[in-house]
Write a structure and sequence with these properties.
Blueprint (H helix, E strand, L loop, with lengths): L3 E5 L2 H23 L2 E5 L6 H7 L9 E5 L1 E3 L9 H8 L21 H15 L12 E4 L24 E6 L2 E6 L1 H5 L3 E6 L5 H7 L20 E7 H10 L1
Parallel strand pairs: 1-9, 2-3, 2-5, 5-8, 8-9
Antiparallel strand pairs: 4-7, 6-7
Bound molecules: 6-phosphogluconic acid.
Amino acid sequence: MTPQVEVFAERSQLIARSLEVTLTQIKDAIAKRGRCTIALAGGNTPKPLYEHLATQDLPWHNIYIFWGDERYVPISDPQSNAGMASQAWLNHVAIPPGNIFPMPTQASDPAESAKIYDQQLQTFFDLEADQFPCFDLVLLGLGPDGHTASLFPHTAALQVCDRNVTVGQKDNQPRLTLTVPVINQAHCILFLVTGANKQTALTQIFAQETDAAQFPARLIQPSQGQLVWLLDAEAGQPLQQVS
Ligand code: 6PG
């Protein structure tokens, strides 16, 4: 499916649009499947979206929250993606605690935690051994190096296609991440990208030919679902030249 790319002059407009897309996916999923499963992105860009979601009146008991990736720190750590989303959003809405599935980061071996989360996904989505979970919405960011989730350039995580969750590596710092096939199984993948420092990665990701090992976000090609890129003018400038 051809990606839907929208460029916004102001970041506030990008966030407003990301809220609109998210709310549409939530309502559509609940109408069609009786629930909405969302895998959240970390980093800084999505925080204003999470803050807007905290003001919404939604059927929270039908909404289930997962993460696309996590730094290997406790939820209380300022680096925690689950901590950020909880402070910006989840702590402020009546979502049942049992609907929130932070990635575990307590085990000394991150690979052990990856297995635990993998099993949680298999149980929640009631999967057969060879099935991948199908999230209704996966939110993603993009690093200046072209990484997304915790799928970093030239790391082993990029090749993992027989599991739902694996260990990512950023400068030898372990992270947990959904694998490429899981992300690509989603009904809707929504990238939020801001800042001039993302221009090079975006140019490569949208180029005719590129080295996906160098720019891992290129690997995100949903098999059936929608792929939406929301860019601010700084990040999207090179693409506007093309179109
Ligand atoms: C993380 C994210 C990561 C993030 C990008 C972009 O754990 O940091 O999942 O993939 O989305 O690094 O981060 P910014 O939104 O802060 O630019």
